[in-house]
Target: 2-dehydropantoate 2-reductase
Amino acid sequence: MSSSYVLYGAGAVGGVVGARLHLAGHRVTLVARGEHLARIRARGLTLDTADGREVVRTDATDSAAEVDWRDGPVVLLAVKAHQTDAALADLMAHAPPSTAVVCLQNGVSNEPATLRRFARTYGITVMLPSEHLEPGLVVQGSHPVPGILDVGRYPTGTDALAEQVAADLRSAGFASVPRPDIMAWKHRKLVTNAVGDAGVVLPDASEELREALRAECEAVLAAAGAPLVTQEADRERRGDLLQVRADARGSNSLGQSLQRGTPGTEVDFRAGEIVLLGRRHGVPTPLNERVQRAAYERLRSTLT
Ligand SMILES: NC(=O)C1=CN([C@@H]2O[C@H](COP(=O)(O)OP(=O)(O)OC[C@H]3O[C@@H](n4cnc5c(N)ncnc54)[C@H](OP(=O)(O)O)[C@@H]3O)[C@@H](O)[C@H]2O)C=CC1
Ligand SMILES: CC(C)(CO)C(=O)C(=O)O
Model:
């Protein structure tokens, strides 16, 4: 049976997921903007995979005002975390209150922001190497399994909708299961991102520094009482499912934004989230602060 989805933020992650759901027979509306939206409207969205390129032609708009809400589409929110408030404001203005919103994003701040507005809030742990550097084009970085996208209700639990979303994602080729403790997985992903971002923005990101950063993140999350799956559980879930294409992977999503020269950065919701929690719970976070500051320095130099 086919379902209906709105991919709010059809960039690297939202574009790959939206294209694959469309190719699997689901109704998909893409929300994008600027030159990217113009290209999608004019020529379709190009999905680049290790098997070649496919052009996906489906509805595309820059506002929830133009989405057809009549068949109760599920929103997969795939903007960067610093863009979430603007996206939610648009959704609040135009989506029915009963809409289910699934945060297909890194970080742990999107779900509480969404729950303020939509009672049916869900989270997905996004393990999906992907790229969006050119308008109209998204690159699926892993093959043959494009990504692992486990899903759960926020703050905890699973339900029929989580099962449906996981089944639909599987129909589109992803690995996906419903998980009642989704935020414990997303906190682990937060640690992975803080450590990964050090490699992007710090010139001296040695193995030793990464390990110290990981320990700092874990100390903060423990002090905050945040649920966190172990690194072993995370490794076990990934197994060897993600086979990253050597030719496709430039940088992680933080690095790609810097490369594209987009204003703003998600770093405040990655290393910056650890900094916030550290300050709230009295744990020093010098390494995460370095990563956060270095990302802003890179942003400044990209924009000038
Ligand atoms: N890329 C990756 O490999 C991975 C990314 N993630 C996470 O997935 C999430 C999405 O990241 P990613 O796909 O890389 O981001 P992208 O920047 O590639 O995609 C987001 C898209 O949403 C658009 N957008 C943002 N706000 C709006 C708006 N209000 N209206 C219309 N369009 C909007 C952006 O446009 P514009 O460019 O103009 O801002 C962009 O095209 C992030 O949380 C990221 O950390 C997780 C795992 C891997
Ligand atoms: C871990 C990684 C690099 C890919 O899944 C990611 O989360 C990102 O690019 O932000």
